[in-house]
Write a structure and sequence with these properties.
The protein has 469 residues and is α/β, with parallel strands linked by helices. It contains ten helices and 25 strands. The strands form five sheets. Strands 1-24-23-4-20-21-22-25-2-3 form a ten-stranded mixed β-sheet, covered by helices on one side. An eight-stranded parallel β-sheet has the order 13-12-11-10-7-6-5-15. Strands 16-18-19 form a three-stranded mixed β-sheet.
Length: 469
């Protein structure tokens, strides 16, 4: 016997999803009697005094395509799906990302100021008829929802072909932001934030450019680190300050390996090294389309006072995105637990909902992406939940905004990855995945509390408890 004195938690809430779909976020309340630990039992000890990052939340993008599909549902069906997804008492999604202007999952190519002159700024039908109404409906369910905005392109009239010749560039795809319009473009951000706030949608954070090293998306803009440094330092930061905005600025917003561009390595570190620019920057955002999540740890080590957030990942035809046997565990390892255990404060996946034809989408953008869920166009009612939905749900359901990741000591079984958290209300959360083809059982100790964890083969299980001994 181990000789340790533990008191078993009377009840534990747990949610289980298996890769073979025999359980899809199955909810249980379990009760345990006092148990003696054998010397051979694996024990993981949580230390609530050792704390890492504070969590902002977990969620998915509300693109124009997502909002369009949601609006095609009956009000009753849409309300039920959004309640299940965003209610703090259900899945608890708490963070969404929207495009500032169009993305490759919009109903058309546009910005909010396509006529030359910043005085012509105005929201478009995609925002007023689709995205904002959906955000309002979500906010009625979860008033604490955080919203991040990211542009795919600036207006045409602000674009040039390159910084040397500064030739006029009239295309949705590629080009650079003309330095002459840094001030106007910063004002564009301010006006967009204020327009959403006027509609009752507060903007928690923005990134200056989605995928700034990607010239090829249907709507895109190249913005190397030197350009983003100048834009944030001389225009975006000062304009936010002058307008009294508290909206956070996260720089970069692209792949772990900086698209293998030699002159763009360490992208956010260059911005942090400039004290004036850094004063406006909360941290950096990352995607996982290339490179490795270990980059998050490297950036955190270099600037531990700056935040990290994971803002985009997709599933689709290229990675067998509908195959939960493959995607559930890989996505949980790389996107969910992998980024959180590497100091990310939030995790946002790409489209919350696409239809079963991978759309609507734009020519030149992703043509074979799947949503976190897919909806059948035959009835706009039948929903298939994919890996990204379960990944976010397993975190968001038990790890609440304001939770802090805490230390866990002990050797987990082979194939098991986990993370532990202390929620603002004093409850604890433990999220674990088992990649092994056999089940695993072990114990988690938190203070004098003892929790027996049983993970089925190839599964993800989330635990939450707040009983006091």
């Amino acid at each position: 016997m181990c000789g340790c004195e533990f008191q078993s938690v009377e009840t534990v809430d747990l949610f289980t999803t298996t890769a073979d779909r025999t359980k899809e976020f199955a909810y249980e309340i379990t009760s345990y009697h006092e148990e003696d630990l054998n010397d051979t039992d694996l024990l993981i000890t949580l230390d609530t005094a050792v704390r890492y990052q504070t969590m902002d939340g977990f969620g998915a993008a509300i693109t124009g395509s997502t909002a369009y599909n949601l609006m095609r549902m009956t009000p009753e069906d849409r309300s039920a799906f959004l309640y299940e997804t965003f209610s703090p008492d259900k899945m608890g999604f708490s963070y969404v990302r929207v495009s500032i202007g169009c993305s490759d999952f919009s109903l058309s190519e546009y910005t909010c100021c396509d006529k030359k002159g910043i005085e012509h700024f105005s929201l478009t039908a995609e925002e007023t008829m689709y995205v904002i109404p959906i955000l309002k409906e979500i906010l009625r369910i979860n008033p604490s929802l955080k919203v991040m905005g990211s542009p795919w392109t600036c207006p045409h009239w602000m674009k040039i072909s390159d910084l040397k010749t500064k030739r006029v560039f009239r295309s949705w795809t590629g080009g650079h932001l003309n330095p002459l319009y840094y001030g106007d473009y910063a004002t564009y951000f301010v006006k967009w934030i204020q327009a959403f706030e006027k509609e009752g949608v507060a903007i928690y954070a923005v990134t200056p450019q989605n995928e700034p090293l990607n010239r090829k998306n249907s709507a895109s803009l190249f913005m190397g680190w030197q350009e983003q440094l100048a834009f944030v330092k001389t225009a975006l930061g000062p304009k936010f300050k002058a307008a009294g905005l508290k909206t956070k600025i996260y720089v970069f917003d692209h792949n772990y390996d900086y698209d293998r561009m030699e002159d763009q390595q360490d992208y956010p570190l260059h911005l942090y090294a400039d004290a004036e620019a850094a004063s406006y920057i909360a941290g950096a955002a990352y995607h996982n389309y290339s490179g490795d999540k270990t980059e998050l740890n490297r950036i955190h080590t270099a600037y531990p006072d700056k935040e990290l957030v994971f803002t985009e990942a997709s599933i689709g035809g290229w990675n067998d995105g509908h195959n939960l046997r493959i995607r559930l565990l890989e996505d949980m390892r790389e996107i969910g637990l992998g980024t959180v255990n590497s100091h990310s404060k939030g995790v946002i996946v790409w489209n919350l909902m696409l239809d079963n034809g991978q759309g609507p989408n734009r020519e030149g953008g992703c043509q074979n992406c799947y949503g976190a869920v897919d909806i059948d166009t035959m009835d706009y009612k039948t929903i298939t939940r994919n890996s990204h939905y379960f990944v976010i749900a397993h975190l968001a359901s038990v790890v609440k905004p304001g939770a802090v990741r805490i230390r866990s000591d002990g050797q987990l079984p082979v194939g098991v990855t986990a993370s532990a958290f202390l929620n603002p209300n004093g409850s604890c959360a433990f999220v674990a995945m088992n990649e092994a083809s056999t089940p695993h059982t072990f114990f988690v100790a938190e203070g004098e509390r003892l929790i027996r964890c049983h993970l089925p083969a190839r599964s993800v299980v989330s635990y939450r408890w707040n009983d006091k001994p």
